[in-house]
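Board notes (copied after class):
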Amino acid sequence: MEPTKEWHVSCRDVAGRRRDLSVFINQGDVVLVAPPGETAVLSPLEVGRLRAVLRDAVVSAADQD
C-alpha cells in the first residue's frame, strides 16, 4: 500500500487565527479539508501555494490510476 500523500497550506480564519487547509488523495480523488467550522482566508501568496498543492495532488491522484 502506498503511503498517503498529504499537503498543508497555511491560512487564517475570519478572526485572524492561524489555521491550515489540508489536501490529500482518497481513491483517486483530491480532498480539501478546511478548518472545522471556519472560513479560510488566504493571502495572494497562500492562494498560489494552494494552487501548487492542488496541482501536485491531481498529478499524484492520476499516478494511482
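Comment from the instructor: Helices lie at 44-64. The chain has a mean pLDDT of 87.
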